[in-house]
Amino acid sequence: MEEIKLNNDVIEQIKGFNHQKLTKEQESLIDKLILNEKLKECYKKCDLCKECKQPNTDIDWCYSCNSKNFQKNFINWTSGNNDIDKFIQKNQLLAKNRDEVIQWIEYDKFENIENLSKGGFGTIYKAIWKNQNKDYPVALKCFYNSQDMTAELLREVESHVLLNRSTYIVHCYGLTKNSKSDDFMMVLEYAENGSLRQYLNNNFNSLKWNQKLQNLLSIACGLKAIHNIGLIHNNLHCSNILSHLHKLTIADLGLCQPANVKSQNDNIKIHRVLPYVAPEVLRGEEYTKASDIYSFGIIAHEICTGMTPYNDMANDEFLDIKICQGLRPKSNYKIPQLIFDIINQCWDAEPLKRPNAVELEHLLNELYLKIQQQNSDLNEQIKEANEINLNQYRLNVNDIETEYSGTL
């Protein structure tokens, strides 16, 4: 089927228009000149492509021109791995917007590389990416023995491609290869405040309840984005959530999988973090979207109290059994009842009683609106909680001072 395009006469008449500030006369002319509704919509939203003069297919993006330009550039790079080359080439040819594009980035484009953390899968580095005369701080996720796990690597990258438009998911820019070890690395958005756990350690005492609600909303929005495309995160915990630009973003999509596909990967169980795992999963049942919601509930309690879940039971070998029997995190730190009610729903033992991600976002949005209303029931509960927590803090300080004076 032949592609429908604007003819040169139409282009000449509209090329000087500001598509974002059309006058009534210009609007009327465009309605007469551009009869194809899809082309008209693309022009009004995205303007004309500077190269081919046809309407862009997305903001600053012409699918046709970019596909051709990417294809011309294929001869100028290679990852050294045929599967990775094919993946990136297909991605670039089919990308419908700039957020979907995955690049091959030569390792010499990175400077000031420093080790951030090590895990079971590999190492995370911070680096400066020299890109078109600009410096970008990025995170490099290096996989051990990545030459032997290309499928797993590309599956994680594919999840990022599907989610790169969400501001609540860590952005993936592309792939590179460590020139010394030959290990492949994902090039990711850098989160300057580190993990959620680090963020809470450094900032909890200064966090207000509206900020805590904002943080909960960020995670809920990220989960909604994941669930809306039919995926589950499969490994949500405090270290897989990062603090960046005054919001939280979900990271580590390595165990992401379709919600309707049974897991065939035994390594998933090894990498999950026990306190965040839903009881049905601990009993051997399949991981579902509702299991992600359970993990959210545990994380929400952590954000509200500042305390890691079951921090007083770190060495309890029967913790998994107790969770299946109904144990949940406890704290002397008072949480406003309306917020705790949502947490309680999320970690309900029955998966069907938990809200889905859309409902969760709606519930949190309602609370966020209430917190803006001075005399709302939520603000009354916050006032009460703050007084209880302040008194508890004073008691703890007095206990410490008494204990200290008794040793003198």
UniProtKB/TrEMBL annotation:
UniProt keyword annotation of Coiled coil present: yes
Record-annotated Protein kinase domain positions: 110-369
PROSITE patterns: PROTEIN_KINASE_DOM
Entry coiled-coil feature ranges: 357-403
InterPro entries listed in its UniProt record: Kinase-like_dom_sf (IPR011009), Prot_kinase_dom (IPR000719), Ser-Thr/Tyr_kinase_cat_dom (IPR001245), Ser_Thr_protein_kinase (IPR050167)
Molecular-function annotations in GO: ATP binding; protein kinase activity
GO CC aspect terms: cytoplasm
Pfam families: PK_Tyr_Ser-Thr
Key words, A-Z: Coiled coil
Listed GO biological process terms: signal transduction
Descriptive protein name: Cdc15p
Organism: Rhizophagus irregularis (strain DAOM 197198w)
Phylogenetic placement of the source organism: Eukaryota, Fungi, Fungi incertae sedis, Mucoromycota, Glomeromycotina
